[in-house]
Amino acid sequence: MGLKGQHNQLLLGAMKEHKSVDMKWLSWNIRGIGMNEKLRKIKKVLVDRKIDLALFQETKKASFSRVNVKRLWPRDKMEFMVVDAEGRAGRLICVWDPNVFQLSDCCSNRHFILLAGTVLNSFDCVVLNVYAPNDPVRRGKLWKILVNLKASFTKPWCVYGDFNEIRSVDERVGCSRRERGISMKDFNDFIDRCELTELPMLGKKFTWCNAIDGNKWSKFDRLLLSPEWIERFKPKLWGLPRHIYDHCPLLLMEDVRDWGPKPFKFTNAWVLHPNFASFLERAWQESQLNGRACVILQRKLHALKLALKQWSKELFGNVSEKIKEIESQLYSLDLLAEDRPLVEEELKLKRETSSQLWRFGRMLEWSWLQKSRLEWNLKGDRNTKFFHVMANSRQNKNALNSILVKGLVVEDLGQVKNVVWAHFNRHFSEAWTIRPVLTSDSRVSDVVIGFSSWKHSFRRKRYGQRSKSAMEIKHQVPMALT
């Protein structure tokens, strides 16, 4: 093998290795790290979850050397950053695998560590480890500092940690403070001003509990992301068991599991195309099939689905590029009109092009509007990027990531599929072996055989409805599909 071939083989191997890396980040307010037993439990979580970046708050340790960090970190390669504690409170630690996160810049104070760098050698970003003070006045000052830093560190933000604040009253149970109303507003204003989105937490509702009594709950810990994170990755945030600790660990991971083919969905924006109705009719008529009507219906719907998917891919798959081409064409016509009056053909072309631009833009926005399931007036905004982020956020929130089976959480892809299949198989199975059959000549075949027993069984239903005769059933059967 030549040198060039060896180089290509090494490059391919490196690409495969890079692609196999899954992002797994952890944030945890550990409330002290001095005891060896606690250190071993934290390290076990890092090992079991294969964490490649960890952010800790409230270590409460006066000094933290590289040896101390190495006792905590299970990987061979390691980089870290530490800020000092305020007396017995505070102290932050960030530790990461340099193969996953490459640091380029940083800054910190007593309440946060900011790391600017690159994830997986491909995504420039800013990662913040935050521990907000309990005092609402000092907490408000921290929000102002972070807002000012946003102007200097413009790459997409990932803000992780213990914010010591809730966003709404339903994030707290069993305890309250008078100043929460004002401080909640300040916190939400900070999130809006930084243009961040909170990633929904899976598995738990609250992140903090008073470990002694267990009757007070709050959501102090959370993850805030810039929209670019949601566009680039498929992030999932899990609230892990807290066991005997006050705070539960938060695990951020990218869901790279293959759940199989996606179900077909009709897109409302399709009807905006002037040729949609004629295409739909032509695709339906083109499939000429023989057999029973129920089989014909199933096969025609399947053929229509494939035709619609191909049509949508060809038309909507490059809508953004078509919009750019149309805008460029309009710009050229505007420049031409500045030099001389446009002739009739050029005016006609400009009208047609403007109409196409409006139609394609509306198609694109309607498509994302449907995916995001937001009312148009909710934001008063036609920003497609906003709809894109909201659609991805809704998909992350509604995704089936695990199932609770007899008290045990099942996360394995194969096991989840088997459990779901068994559940619906039980609910949609029936003992009737003989049923009315839909045929192409609109007659019910073989329905008389066994119909008497089916009718008596139906009469015994608690709904008390009158059983339908064979003639009534016949009149309700649709005509043959040709």
Overview features:
disordered C terminus; Deoxyribonuclease I, Chain A; seven-stranded mixed beta sheet; 14 helices; about 475 residues; alpha+beta
In CATH's first tier, which class of the largest domain applies?
Answer: Alpha Beta
* Structure annotation, total helices: 14
Can you count the beta strands?
Answer: 20
* Strand order, sheet with most strands: 3-4-2-1-16-15-11
What fold name stands as the CATH topology of the largest domain?
Deoxyribonuclease I, Chain A
Terminal CA distance: 61 Å
Oligomer: single chain
Secondary structural class: alpha+beta
Anisotropy-based shape? globular
Explain the layout of strands and helices.
Layout: H1 3-19, E1 24-29, H2 36-48, E2 53-57, H3 66-72, E3 79-86, E4 89-96, E5 101-109, E6 112-119, E7 123-131, H4 136-152, E8 157-162, E9 172-173, H5 180-193, E10 197-198, E11 201-202, E12 208-209, E13 217-218, E14 221-225, H6 227-232, E15 235-239, E16 250-254, H7 276-286, H8 293-316, H9 319-339, H10 344-372, H11 384-398, E17 403-405, E18 408-410, H12 413-427, E19 437-438, E20 444-445, H13 451-459, H14 470-476
Parallel strand pairs: 1-2, 7-8, 11-15
Antiparallel strand pairs: 1-16, 2-4, 3-4, 5-6, 6-7, 8-14, 9-13, 10-14, 12-13, 15-16, 17-18, 19-20
Helix pairs in contact: 4-5, 9-10, 10-11
